[in-house]
Amino acid sequence: MEIVILDGYGANPSDLSWERLQEIGKVTVYERTAPELTIARAAEADVVLTNKVILGRREIEQLPKLRYIGVLATGYNVVDTEAAHEHGITVTNVPAYSTESVAQMVFAHLLTVTNRVEHYAQQNRNGQWTASPDFCYWDTPLTELAGKTFGIVGLGHIGKRVAEIALAFGMKVKALTSKSADAIPQGIQKAELAELLATSDVLSLHCPLTATTRHLINADTLRKMKPSAILINTGRGPLVNDTDVAEALQTKQIAAYCADVMAEEPPKTDNPLLAQPNAFFTPHIAWATREARIRLLNVAIDNVKAFADHHPQNVV
């Protein structure tokens, strides 16, 4: 079995091992693959693994040997699944491997805004505390989370874990979800979007990107939020309109925007959000803890093995 990994560097920048995969077939790993090289590199493959390299209809129709596509992620929008199914190609993903890591990043961002640890650590490296006439100082607002309202859009694996952590902080949790009120965990209040916008001190996005949720956060919805609200996006970049969020920050319609994702990655230098001092970004790394990546590789390899054994799993 010929196995080709088109962009192995993202999930495994040489600190983990593909050894288990090599027990299944001959493995060729490319760290990155430019679009114009995809077809040539995958031409002899029975199995292709991809993270962000697109396998659309054009690519699939020119890969007659291909029988399996494994997505090294949960989201599988990089694959034209309709074209794959038409050509008898099995497509799998890796669900829920990063739940703990992404939930952790949500609160890393939130605490960045409320406590500003990095800000003070850097100031004190520069001598700010040693020069203080008092035993302490602060030059940013410091906010306690207990008693605040944490709104969640989407109550899947990550949304539920985020809710649990927010409850542990003593926060009131509300969620926009398709689940019935009696099917959601205790302590979470079901709410519609209008209520979340109006009442949330923190609003965290965890819904899938669809035609309905694209630019869910826009100029209109931002106007309905509290001026003290903190918006967090660790879901998908296009859930928000970048320009509208930048304008809302500039005019103080909201207090802060925290994101691990952007509509275009990496972002262009002229993205208006990058100029906003109350916009805080991490470079799409919420999923990338070593622990989460070990789970990702293990499940991805298990998926290939299950396919080779004629019992495919995690099929999309």
Q: How is this structure best summarized?
A:
It is built from 11 helices and 12 strands. It is α/β, with parallel strands linked by helices and 316 residues long.
Mean pLDDT: 97
Largest sheet: 7 strands, parallel
Number of helices: 11
- Helix share of residues? 25-40%
Low-confidence stretches: none
| Strand composition percent | 5-15%
Radius of gyration: 22 Å
Q: How does the SSE layout of this entry go?
A:
Layout: E1 2-5, H1 19-22, E2 26-29, H2 38-42, E3 47-50, H3 57-61, E4 68-71, H4 81-86, E5 90-92, H5 99-115, H6 117-125, E6 149-153, H7 157-168, E7 172-176, E8 188-190, H8 193-199, E9 202-205, H9 219-223, E10 230-233, H10 242-250, E11 256-259, E12 279-281, H11 290-308
Parallel strand pairs: 1-2, 1-3, 3-4, 4-5, 6-7, 6-9, 7-8, 9-10, 10-11, 11-12
Helix pairs in contact: 5-7
Describe the structure.
This protein is α/β, with parallel strands linked by helices. The strands form two sheets. The chain has a seven-stranded parallel beta sheet, sandwiched between helices. Helix 5 crosses helix 7. 37% of the residues are buried. The mean pLDDT is 97.
Give the key terms:
12 strands, alpha/beta, 11 helices, 316 residues, five-stranded parallel sheet
